[in-house]
Specification:
heterodimer, A: alpha+beta, six-stranded mixed beta barrel, 21 helices, B: alpha/beta, Rossmann fold, 10 strands, 27% helix, binds adenosine-5'-triphosphate, binds magnesium ion
Chain lengths: 773, 245
């Protein structure tokens, strides 16, 4: 029984550790984020302007509901890091001279703050510094507004604004090619021609103020300085990406571990009940010696409680360790100064209550059944089992089965409940494996759809401001560019009934080749000459369907508002989108043709030189490489999800093993007499293992497809729970996932079989023959 | 103490020979001598009844002869095969080819019918008689498709005997085959064993506590305290069906 109790402990440990660990990481990350944001005064709103005089800050401070206001200068620069020959861009941000920033304070990891007036000093964001091995005292050159400058690193810093360092307009971080730097306001203003002015502002909200109201007011003030629309945290690049990642983690860390815990609780319930059933004789014996039902029951309950409590304690310890270790891993991706980890006792309590509850129900049911029998009856062998030929045999297949095979089939058929429970147990283990893995599949599928079907460009060029179409032809004619497709992006606010949503409205060609709009069947759809196409989720958020008319408020230029018919819905897994025909968009804006940028198809070898040449052009704000974006995405999701996935799979494997081993072990105790008799008759070890292992193998084969089905069902359920306004994860299970799940289950089955096979060596033939069955 | 005398009417070919056979169970503090230097020969086609008080070592002896257990000292020869040197695999093959067992508890496979319980052995035997025939021999020709739970104890024991003899073993070892049966049923079972010995010529050893049953034997061997205390040749064999107890 020791082996079986150990297997139960394993299942409890795995269930608890997953639950406590995963919940712990998520909790720790959220705590850390909250603390960081509060202590380092992360701003509530942000706005870009072309150039506004410093006095406008005073005006902003009078906006009702606004808290603090911090104006900044933000410059983009091309950076030349010694020893790194690829183009690198940087966003340089000002820090106030002579005081700490009131909003978005910096955490200085090493070195010191930049000193006012010292021209060449910069603070470097930690990930960027790490990516290039930059340390205090290192120097590199930056080109700001065409002027080369030699910069000296005086410190490595973190900011709540760049928990994830992602280029504006970039979907995913590229820590080598893009970095955030901080310089003294005076120095940066001089280099960027922003003396006495600012081009970026961050602000906080007064307690209880409405963000939307404040944003509207801020827009009104900044409009005349070329404001492009104030945004809240939700649209701030670092924060929104962080939320996106957290959202995924929340999914994996709340639903899945709970499923795990429930499954392991269920399994423990089954296993414990069967274990007690095997002890019927001992129970009868104890009763015959005069132990009361209560005493007998208490014995088993104590035993099981002990095992489960030990399992929960071990599992909690393992969970805490996992939580902290994973939290530390995430700190590489989410840059917080330190991880705040606190154990949530309610989480531990939930795990304990569920596992003990399930095992108590299992043990009590079985003990009650056992003690209810009068001792004499319990000690008598259970009523002679009645067997009959199985269905398979009755339909005429009998002659194909030898006797050992008939034994297997009849044993299974005679105990349908037991067989079913075993199958369900194994299937659940298989299902949680699928659940542990399906996220990676979903992400792969998402990447495939997004980057192979929807976004087919190699490079995306964005201009600093709307630019004449001539710029497109110039870029198209560059060496290495095979095709260029223009786009015009305009920040708009969509209104329908009382609902609103801010979105970047993209003007595109009627039948774009590179950046396409696709329907739910992933077929490209043409953009009608009139009307607006919305991404599916955006349409659902606003509760509009094709045919409805929505109000489109342009958030730049003349800020005109139009009523436009919705003419189509597009499938889009990442972000939300709104699309219009170029001409229709120009009419909406009341402007002549102008471009925000272009998508390029290029010769692959030319990527680095092209990127550099294009970046050097004055009207170009940025160039984003698709391959790098995919890499970035995969790196990010690799770091995030793979850790989760690995741990989930590991524990799912443990659970699978626990269940299968226990079933197999119990089967052995139930069959030892038959097996011993066969050995006496001259059957070899191998021949009797066939009977035992054949039974397990058969059950496993039935359990696998069921497990696949349960897993797919569970995955669909988890996704349904996870869907948010912002993104949607497609259910796309890969063959590899099923193969992995099957492999883990099979390995567990094989390992159990091998252990049992060795136990068969110790089968005591003579002892069995001395007793009656 | 070797009794080399054998009934002249019988085959003198030695099937089993034990030499100084001892079995000691080492229980840590005490050592139990289950067998002490037993020297014994069994002849082809004879029927031996083994008598002795409880704990005298009967089962131990039979188990060692049948290759279920191994001796601590001495030798057991089956023909010229030395069982004391055989490993587990060789003992398995030995049991499979040459030995039929019948125990007090029938040890039938509950999930198989009478026919299948026999067939499970004939499937792996070299020269079996068909299961139906073996069962017919035991008077069970009409219960081929009954499961053990549908048979009486005596019927189950006869299925067990059919299972033991269907492979045409060289020896049939029966450890208290009637121990769990009433006398009337016991007679039927004993009669079956007797017939196997007579008709198939299987060397047979039957353990019993019942002195009356010794009347069917060619030789009666008594064990006491792990030693052979007496070997008697039974000059006047009685048929099992004429016995009562
Ligand atoms: N596995 C064992 N471990 C220790 N001692 C054993 C074991 N098997 C048998 N013995 C001892 O060996 C001796 C002989 O036992 P055995 O079973 O051969 O007796 P038996 O003559 O068959 O008795 P019975 O008529 O009661 O069946 C006994 O003293 C018994 O206690
Ligand atoms: Mg005995």
């Amino acid at each position: 029984m020791r082996g079986q109790l150990l297997a139960i402990v394993l299942v409890v440990v795995a269930g608890t550790a997953t639950y406590v660990g995963m919940r712990g990481v998520m909790h720790a990350l959220q705590e850390t984020q909250a603390t960081y944001y509060t202590e380092y005064q992360f701003a509530d709103g942000f706005a870009n302007v072309r150039r506004a005089p410093e006095r406008v800050a005073q005006e902003l401070r009078t906006v009702p509901g606004i808290g603090d206001v911090e104006t900044r200068v933000r410059a983009s620069a091309n950076v030349d890091i010694p020893g790194f020959d690829k183009p690198v861009t940087a966003s340089i941000q000002s820090v106030p001279d002579g005081r700490a920033p009131r909003l978005n304070q910096l955490f200085i990891r090493t070195g010191r703050m930049v000193e006012p007036g010292r021209d060449n000093e910069v603070l470097v964001n930690e990930v960027f510094a790490e990516a290039h091995g930059l340390q205090d005292g290192d120097t590199f050159t930056a080109t700001i507004r065409g002027q080369q400058q030699q910069l000296t690193v005086v410190g490595i810093a973190l900011s709540p604004e760049v928990v994830i360092q992602v280029e504006p307009g970039g979907l995913f971080p590229d820590r080598e090619r893009y970095g955030v730097l901080w310089m003294s306001r005076r120095t940066l203003a001089a280099a960027y021609d922003m003396q006495g002015a600012f081009n970026n502002v961050a602000f906080s909200l007064a307690p209880g103020a409405s963000l939307d109201d404040v944003l509207v007011q801020v827009d009104v003030i900044l409009d005349r300085f070329g404001g492009t629309g104030a945004i809240g945290r939700a649209d701030q690049p670092s924060h929104s990406l962080l939320e996106f990642e957290f959202e995924q983690l929340r999914g994996t860390s709340t639903v899945l571990p709970l499923v795990f815990l429930l499954v392991s609780a269920f399994l423990i319930n089954i296993v414990v009940a069967r274990l007690v059933n095997l002890q019927r004789k001992q129970i009868a014996m104890l009763k015959a010696f005069g132990y009361s039902d209560y005493a007998v029951g208490a014995h088993y309950i104590r035993l099981v409680l002990g095992v489960v409590t030990a399992g929960t304690a071990l599992g909690t310890a393992a969970g805490v360790w996992i939580g902290q270790a994973m939290g530390q891993l995430y700190l590489d991706f989410f840059r917080f100064p330190v991880l705040t980890y606190t154990l949530e006792w309610p989480v531990v309590a939930t795990a304990f209550v569920l596992t003990t509850g399930a095992s108590l129900i299992g043990v009590t049911g079985a003990v009650v059944r056992a003690v209810r029998l009068p001792p004499a009856e319990a000690m008598r062998p259970a009523a002679p089992p009645t067997y009959k030929p199985t269905l398979l045999e009755r339909i005429g297949l009998q002659r194909f089965f030898d006797q050992p095979t008939r034994m297997i089939l009849r044993n299974l058929e005679r105990q349908p409940i037991k067989s079913t429970l075993t199958v369900i147990g194994m299937a659940s283990a298989c299902a949680i494996l699928v659940l542990g893995l399906f996220f990676t599949d979903a992400v792969d599928y998402l990447v495939e759809v997004q980057f192979e079907i929807i976004q087919r460009e190699d490079l995306t060029v964005t201009f600093t401001e709307p630019t004449a179409s001539r710029a497109l032809y110039e870029i198209a004619s560059l060496q290495g560019v095979t095709y260029a497709e223009p786009f015009r992006a305009v920040p708009v606010r969509l209104h329908y009934e009382h609902r609103t949503q801010d979105v970047s409205l993209e003007g595109i060609l009627p039948t774009p080749y590179l950046r396409r709009v696709v329907d739910t069947a992933l077929q490209p759809i043409p953009i009608p000459r009139e009307g607006i196409v919305l991404s599916d989720r955006l349409a659902r958020t606003l509760h509009v369907a094709p045919g409805d008319r929505i109000r489109v408020e342009v958030l730049e230029g003349a800020r005109r508002t139009h009523v436009v018919p919705v003419v189509g819905r597009a499938e889009q897994f990442i972000g939300v989108g709104a699309y219009m025909d170029f001409e229709a968009l120009y009419r909406l804006l009341g402007e002549g043709p102008s471009l925000s940028g272009a998508f390029l198809m290029i010769e692959k070898e030319a990527v680095d030189t092209l990127q550099e040449t294009i970046l050097d052009r004055p009207q170009v704000a940025g160039v984003i490489s698709q391959d790098r974006a995919v890499e970035g995405f995969e790196e990010a999701s690799a770091e995030n999800l793979l850790v989760f996935t690995f741990i989930l799979s590991l524990f799912a494997g443990v659970i699978a093993f626990g269940v299968i081993y226990n079933s197999a072990r119990i089967t052995l105790s139930e069959r030892d007499r038959e097996l011993a008799s066969l050995r006496v008759l001259g059957f070899t070890q191998g021949e009797i293992s066939y009977i035992l292992i054949g039974e397990i193998a058969l059950l496993t084969l039935v359990a696998l497809p069921l497990g696949f089905a349960l897993g797919a069902l569970g995955a669909a359920g988890v996704l349904a729970l996870l869907e948010t306004d912002l993104y949607q994860i497609p259910l796309a299970l890969s063959r590899a996932t099923f193969a992995t799940a099957a492999t883990v289950v099979l390995i567990s089955a094989i390992v159990s079989a091998v252990i049992l096979r060795r136990k068969l060596h110790t089968l005591d033939l003579i002892a069995v023959l001395k007793t009656r069955e | 103490m070797v009794d080399s005398a054998y009934p002249s009417a019988m085959n003198s070919e030695v099937v089993f020979r034990t030499e100084h056979l001892s079995k000691i169970y080492d229980m840590g503090e005490v050592q139990v001598h289950a067998l002490r230097e037993v020297d014994l020969e069994l002849y082809r086609e004879e029927l031996v009844v083994l008598l002795g008080a409880s704990g005298s070592g009967k089962s131990t002896l039979v188990n060692i002869l049948g290759g279920l257990d191994t001796a601590t000292e001495g030798r057991v020869l089956y023909g010229d095969q030395d069982l004391t040197r055989a490993n587990d695999r060789e003992l398995t093959q030995y049991r499979r080819r040459y030995v039929g067992f019948v125990f007090q508890f029938y040890n039938l496979i509950p999930s198989l019918t009478a026919r299948e319980n026999v067939a499970i052995v004939t499937e792996i035997a070299e020269n079996p008689i068909p299961p139906e025939e073996a069962l017919d021999l035991m008077g069970l020709g009409d219960r081929l498709d009954s499961f053990p739970s549908q048979l009486s104890g005596g019927q189950q024991q006869r299925v067990a005997i059919a299972r033991a003899i269907a492979k045409q073993p060289a020896v049939l070892l029966c450890d208290e085959p009637t121990g769990a049966l009433d006398s009337e049923t016991g007679v039927v079972v004993l009669d079956a064993i007797e017939r196997v010995n007579r008709d198939l010529g299987t060397t047979t050893m039957v353990i019993t506590h019942n002195v009356v049953q010794a009347k069917i034997a060619d030789r009666v061997i008594r064990l006491s305290n792990g030693r052979i205390s007496d070997i008697t040749i039974n000059k006047s064999k009685t048929a099992a069906r004429d016995l009562t107890w």
